[in-house]
Amino acid sequence: MEKTQDVGHKHFSGLVLRKYLLKKRTVVHKLTAESVGLGILLAVVGGFLDAYTFVSRDGVFATSQTGNLVLLGVEVAHGQWTQGFRHIPPIIAFVLGVAVAESLKHPHITRTFPHPARTVLFLESIVLVIVGTWPVQVPNMVVTITIAFIASVQICSFRTLVKWPYNSAMVTGNLRTAAQAAYTALVFHDRKSLLQFFDFTLIIVSFLVGALVGTLSTLHWGTKAIWIASGILLCAMLVLNANPKTLLNKP
Question: Most buried residue among 4, 5, 19, 195 by CB atoms closer than 10 A?
Answer without folding.
Answer: 195
